[in-house]
Amino acid sequence: MFNIPEYQNYVFAVEYDLCFLDVILPGMTGLEAMKIINERSPHTKVAIMSGSSLDEAIKGQIEELAFAFIEKPFGLSHIREVAERAAAALIVQ
């Protein structure tokens, strides 16, 4: 099984314009991974996905730190919309 803490030097070694993360990841949460990405690559837009019901504290953190929150199930058009918004935001930067 892929474990993010074990491989984080590889996972976080490259900077991306947009990253999609699930809330639940092996070895750490999506919020923890997003915080690392935000520190190492501040320009990267992070979209958090979840199919689980989240408590208000977690939702608040996602709204504060993430570029987008995507609830499962979702369609390709929703992913395209997030990608287009991220591209537009990166152009403005």
Task: Look at the structure and give the CATH class.
Answer: Alpha Beta
Under CATH, the topology is which?
A: Rossmann fold
Q: Would you count the extended β strands for me?
A: 5
The number of distinct structural domains comes to 1
The portion of residues forming beta strands comes to 15-25%
Spatial sequence of strands, sheet with the most strands? 1-4-5
Shape: globular
Helix and strand pattern = HEEEHEHEH
Main sheet overview: 3 strands, parallel
Helix content: 40-55%
* Total count of helical runs of at least 4 residues: 4
**Average predicted confidence as pLDDT:** 88
What structural class do helix, strand and pairing data support?
alpha/beta
What is the fourth-level CATH superfamily?
Response regulator
Question: How large, in whole angstroms, is the Cα Rg?
Answer: 13 Å
